[in-house]
Design brief:
The chain has nine helices and twelve strands. It is α/β, with parallel strands linked by helices and about 300 residues long. The strands form four sheets. A six-stranded parallel β-sheet has the order 2-1-3-4-5-10, with helices on both faces. Strands 6-9 form a two-stranded parallel sheet. Strands 7-12 form a two-stranded parallel ribbon.
Length: about 300
Amino acid sequence: MRIAVTGKAGQVVTSLIERGSAAGHEIIALGRPELDLAEPDSVASAFEAAAPDAIVSAAAYTAVDKAESESELAHAVNGAGAGAVAEAARGLGVPLIHVSTDYVFDGRLDHPYVESDPTGPTGVYGASKLAGEQAVLAAHGDNSAVLRVAWVYSPFGANFVKTMLHLAGDKDEVSVVADQLGNPTSALEIADGILRVATNMVSDSSPFLRGVFHMTASGEGSWADFADAIFAASAARGGPAARVKRITTADYPTPATRPSNSRLDCGLIARVHGVALPDWHGSLETVIARLQAVAN
């Protein structure tokens, strides 16, 4: 299968290139200068040249705090840009998999969110990603799957795992928020899930394979729990580790409000697409091992 994906260096894109190539797919990463989501006129021609069997919309403006002061750019990329990708997919008559986020919710539920729960982003980033979902479904809803992911980490790019390991190299104790809950999810596992969904959609035009789905690792925890697991896995391999000081969200103010509950119920994608990502603890061990191998 020939899959075109937006972006060239993001965690999901890099993971798709690795996992997709290993599975025998041709992954075509499209980014600037040939494709710029902030310039919608560049999108259609880039995909026409790629001639894919499916498109993955993975690139996004992801600077959550900076988005509060760059609202126009965030909406241009995550909203209008996503819509332009959907229009290009419609023009080519190919399925689209659009990667979205838990930030479309306000985080106030006391249990994991299902796809039908009301959205209500609390910041610019979440609002821009919700606008992207809406644009995708409006332009190409009959042949798109919106996949909401959360708490993404990997051996690539910048992420929470790498930040914690870097801090542990300099500090004996790291303060980490303990009152926000979510599902830490490896971008490598996300890539596997995307490939399964893409394969299903290319081979089957059934409407039930389209729509909005939640796709995160199984298991949950707080950021502090995540940090504890990172340091334990790193220490087991002789790598950096630190004590975790558990703090509240109020102790760590940020420009953008984070959801206190980012947990997503992934039962629907398991039933419809047969995608059930593994428990995050095991996936974290794999990523830590790879990072340690590079460091050594």
